[in-house]
Specification:
With 121 residues, the protein is an alpha+beta fold. It has one domain (2-118): Tetrahydropterin Synthase, Chain A (2-Layer Sandwich). The protein contains three helices and five strands; from the N terminus they run ββαβααββ. It has helices spanning 59-68, 74-77, 85-96, and strands at 2-14, 29-41, 72-73, 103-109, 116-118. A five-stranded mixed β-sheet has the order 3-1-2-4-5. It is elongated, with a radius of gyration of 16 Å. The relative contact order is 0.22. Ligand LPXRUNBV binds next to helix 3. It is an enzyme of class 4 (lyase). Pfam families: PTPS (PF01242). Keywords: Lyase, Metal-binding, Queuosine biosynthesis, Zinc.
Length: 121
Amino acid sequence: MYTISKEFNFSASHVLARLPSWHPCSRMHGHNYVVVLELRAQDEQLSDVGFVRDYRELGVVKAWIDDTLDHRHLNDALGDLSPSAEHLARWIFDRWIGEFPELTAVRVSETPKTWAVYQPE
Ligand SMILES: Nc1nc2c(c(=O)[nH]1)N=C([C@H](O)[C@H](O)COP(=O)(O)OP(=O)(O)OP(=O)(O)O)CN2
Ligand SMILES: [Zn+2]
């Protein structure tokens, strides 16, 4: 089994409004987000060149992140979904699994010390 990944970055604000008011993250604040898409394939599924998927093809994800998430308020971008790192990982996975069936996981980091991963079983 082969796994490839590509990292994307964006900056955005959010409010976790369902947290109690004493929690700092219930106030508006921002993060420099890191998103990693992970794609997997078996030996026989590799392209003739030997790719799970050409990294360059993931350029559409960068363009979409720049358009949809970068310098946005995530509460607006995600609608009713509370913009936790977990929900964001799932939301990005659901957006791209149709175009990239090899997608197995999406990782989202809000701070250098935290990661949330969505990886369907
Ligand atoms: N499981 C989750 N917990 C938290 C999330 C989340 O998305 N999923 N989000 C937040 C905040 O939005 C933000 O990420 C703060 O995280 P935290 O680790 O508390 O950040 P700090 O820099 O304040 O942490 P230090 O411990 O001071 O380094 C909160 N929780
Ligand atoms: Zn936050």
